Amino acid sequence: MSSPSRHVAVVGAGRMGEGIALAFAQAGVTVSLIDLKARQPQAQADYFEAVERNLALEVENLAVLGLIDSRQAKQLLLRVQLLPLERGGQALEDCRLVFEAVPEVVSAKRQALAWIDRHLAADAIIASTTSTFLVTELAAMVSAPQRMVNAHWLNPAQLMPLVEVSRSTQTSDAVVGELLETLRAIGKVPVVCNATPGFIVPRLQALVMNEAARMVEEGVASAEQIDLAVRSGFGLRFSVLGLLEFIDWGGGDILHHASAYLARHLGERYQAPQSVLDNMAAGRNGLRDGVGFYDYRTVDVQAYRQTRLAALVRQLHDTGMAPRIDGDLIRPSAARSNSAEARPGK
User: Fold this and answer.
1) Are 287 and 249 in contact (CB under 8 A)?
2) Rounded to the nearest 5°, which phi and psi values hold at 111?
3) What HEC string does 71-117 produce?
4) What is the CATH number of domain 7-194?
5) What would the pLDDT profile of 233-270 be if each residue is shown by its tens digit?
6) Fold for domain 201-336?
7) Which of 104, 110, 162, 186 is the most buried (most CB within 10 A)?
């Protein structure tokens, strides 16, 4: 793996900007955290004092969690440089990558991107951390749309591995490749999607969260019972198997029939999409047919299944929910009995 860039900038010193700054600082990268709002001297000092308290608290949490020691905590904070607007432009001159992290207001985005565009080198990358605006909309706000990309981080950015990278048809392949390489170099897991509202995770979680709230409204179960079901079932399972992988695991026809039943009783939001119907009609129901959303025809299916089940057992032990045999917990070594990685093909 290549080394990450030695200096990145984050424009916008709010919660997301702080988290991204810490994510890079943890990897040994110097970060210029720039406050884009013009403030009077005392107001600026007060604001930066609050930001420093936030950063120190998050670093303290990392130490309490056992991720860093006291020496690393001090080094980490030293790598984040807080800069006011009047000093921020100079900091961008040697940056290959800058993250825009200002509030989700179109005027704020336009102002920030125009400012970044003026000060950043012509071949450097601009990555917006927006969870709202499409990259196609933001690309129109800069002089070189080929260097514009969205990089949607999940909170807390310093801990969550995933970063969703959304590109437009104008975004350069080289820009996407360099951003992915940089994110991987600091230990993140970037995924790429096209310009669409909701990216991947927000689009999925909005449906699930709304349905959970709807079940409370309908009296299906209490909030506590629904959340317990998620923590001990839904969430555990999908931390091991991806959603489309799980369709293949159980069978696309099972999803089709379940969706038809739920749609009749709960509404059209449960209807299966055309891709599930097409797979079923073509006999591509997943593992048992050798093809589904993934291709298993060259995969050792038994080894693949064992690998996923071993990962699930490790999760069960970590959460204290491993099954009991004769009153005793299953030995942790059982979770590691097969460590070989087997992945289905696309």
Assistant:
1) yes
2) -65, -45
3) HHHHHHHHCEEEECHHHHHHHHHHCCEEEECCCCCHHHHHHHHHHHH
4) 3.40.50.720
5) 999 999 999 999 999 999 999 999 999 999 999 999 99
6) N-(1-d-carboxylethyl)-l-norvaline Dehydrogenase; domain 2 (1.10.1040)
7) 186
